[in-house]
Write a structure and sequence with these properties.
homodimer, alpha/beta, 14 strands, 2 domains, Aspartate Aminotransferase, domain 2, Aspartate Aminotransferase, domain 1, three-stranded antiparallel beta sheet, 13 helices
Chain lengths: 399, 399
């Protein structure tokens, strides 16, 4: 994405990130050379099967799981759907309540809400102004009728990392299965499923530098799980359809790279993030950090900027080669106010000015300089056109 | 899969087939260059979105559909699950019967049977000795309580092509949604969804030379469909998860190639198939063709060979560089007798000797010579070890 004429600072890695060179290289033979179906009984298939199992072990190792606790899926969204629907359908109507946080990804929220039609009740746990779920609150909300609790590890819109271990412990004490969506944290935050004490954990390939179209679900041994995609014997009968071998190889290679580089990567991202946050808060008046200051994703900086419309900001930044987001790439474009920001108690008008930077190890301090060269000007220009901005301040302070 | 020392005749293309050169070439830029998320609002994402929509149009064109009637999935199995579960859940419990043929793919059979736990009744329509479903029989079986009928277009185990148009017409007259699994026929049999008059049709990438991990579902405009993978706005809200852009580009390119080469390809495959069938029936005593002689997949030849164990046959053929299958690659290895062959009325003992050749345009008459050079010897050797074979004939004729 470099071109000789224009400096590019791509900082929307939560939405998409390029496949890493060594990952793509590892995948290539499996498209047209080692193409056999791993379920076949002859040597060509058996060799591919062995490769698939090697990747399963690598993914398991990244999160401290056993290989047989990993199911490959086509995305983090599928993993979330499998975790929720697979758990609920495996003991259908034995307990009829699902608890999720108010700031879950759409794939979790909408999977849970799907069961409302089947006479389930979905409880949305509130978060505080930093986006944190309170374990005490969960404890009070849990009851005998709860079939599943799902609370994300990290939030891609405000960057906050939830106290998963504490939340999972509450569920363990009550014998209620606990799922966490780790798509935002995988590869940049240390994950150990035993340390966290979770029953189910979703992850996705792209945040690790693997391609779109691959993800995985960790499910603790003896967890009951109905397949989401019924089919043959693939994934030990838990997910039908021929294995996406090149994708699986990509995920395995990416997991291996993530394992070895995590500490260095997290340190680099944290430095960039803190520099960016300090700069934006210093140089843009009436800009506010969203999410928690410390308990946040290493490469994540998110703000609400007053008297700004997020999409207009993103559009103008992109014309200067700066690529960022205004919330989640998966959210409805029609949905003007982010439910996540609303859940944090941010006023609707201020929430319009949401801007999210998600960094990768390829980003540099130079990228941040580039942002700081353009962001103040762009904000000023947009505010000059805003009906709710006058004389360098909001008409009514909404923060 | 060529090597200089050993002649390879790979004839298990229904299980897996190499990605075509031009398909892989088309995909490559979307892994690391044009990697943006198509749901983003800036130029990089918008360009990718446009590419995704171009592929949707190509897939639609291959089957005579409109682009907005195509949902990209991760496999044919996912498309089958989406068709069945999406239809049933969209009007949950309004009608409580699902009709499928007795020879459907596991992803259809097991999706339907999943609803048995939810108080649905699944009716398995019998087939005749060729594997054909009788439209009159369907007519008699259909009732007011039928929510969906699913009958495959072509069967990968016995090669038979079903009279879809006639079956769909019966359903149309009764106002019951009709789904067909076209994974076995896509690219080698002409498909026009309007001509066939189906409401839902599943297809898969690999049979077209696209990679594993991509498929699609056609759903007729105004068909009610609950997502299988809930999530954001992707696929117009019908399938969550970031689009598998490289896979989608691969499927689009493969669909384009299939459209232009279908006639020539089908003619080539039919010639090979007929040569193979004639040779096997002539040179292997007590070998029987399974499925219909004429109404069958162009590249498909399947047999039951008496006093032979299919897996042993496949193993020994593979040692001579011949790769074939014994039924479906997705079926349980523990399942000794194929339910498809049983449904055709083939005795269990004879069904053990199932062998399936699935050819591609890369196969040649030379491959068939190679098969005929080894198959008779291998069969003879296996029979020599068989307790149910004596003096050149089965101990008791079971056919």
């Amino acid at each position: 994405m470099k071109d000789s004429q224009k400096k590019i600072a791509y900082m929307d890695h939560a939405a998409a990130t390029p496949v890493k060179g060594p990952v793509l290289k590892a995948m290539l033979p499996y498209f047209d050379r080692d193409f056999a179906n791993p379920s076949t009984v002859y040597d060509l298939g058996f060799q591919v099967k062995r490769v698939v199992e090697e990747q399963r072990a690598k993914v398991a190792e990244l999160i401290g799981a056993d290989p047989e606790e990993i199911i490959f899926t086509s995305s983090g969204a599928e993993a979330n759907n499998l975790a929720i629907k697979g758990t609920i359908f495996s003991r259908f109507k034995k307990a009829k309540r699902i608890i999720v946080s108010a700031i879950e990804h759409h794939s979790v929220l909408n999977s849970a809400r799907f069961f409302e039609r089947l006479d389930y009740e979905v409880t949305f746990l509130p978060v505080d102004k930093y986006g944190l779920v309170d374990p005490e609150r969960l404890k009070k909300t849990l009851d005998q009728d709860t079939a599943l609790v799902s609370i994300m590890h990290g939030n891609n819109e405000v960057g906050t990392i939830e106290p998963i271990r504490e939340l999972a412990t509450v569920c363990r004490e009550h014998g209620v299965p606990f799922h966490t969506d780790a798509v935002a944290t995988i590869g940049s935050v240390e994950i150990d499923v035993h340390e966290m004490d979770v029953d189910l954990l979703s992850l996705s390939g792209p945040p690790l530098g693997a391609p779109k179209g691959i993800g995985a679900l960790y499910f603790r041994k003896n967890t009951r799980l109905m397949p989401l995609i019924h089919g043959g014997i693939q994934e030990r009968g838990r997910r039908g359809g021929t294995e996406n071998v090149p994708g699986i190889v990509g995920l395995g290679k990416a997991a291996e790279l993530a394992k070895s580089s995590m500490k260095k990567r997290a340190a680099h991202l944290t430095q960039l993030r803190d520099t960016l946050i300090a700069n934006v808060l210093e140089k843009i008046p009436h800009a506010y950090l969203t999410g928690h200051r410390e308990r946040r994703l290493p490469g994540h900086a998110s703000f609400c900027i007053e008297a700004i419309e997020g999409e207009a900001l993103i559009f103008m930044l992109s014309r200067n080669g700066i690529y960022v987001n205004t919330g989640s790439a998966c959210a409805s474009k029609a949905l003007k106010t982010s439910p996540v920001l609303v859940a944090l108690g941010i006023p609707a008008a201020l929430a319009q000015g949401s801007v999210v930077f998600s960094l990768e190890e390829t980003n540099t301090l130079d990228d941040i300089d580039h942002v700081m060269k353009h962001l103040p000007t762009v904000v000023e220009r947009l505010r000059a056109m805003s009906p709710i901005w006058k004389n360098g301040a909001p008409v009514a302070n909404m923060a």
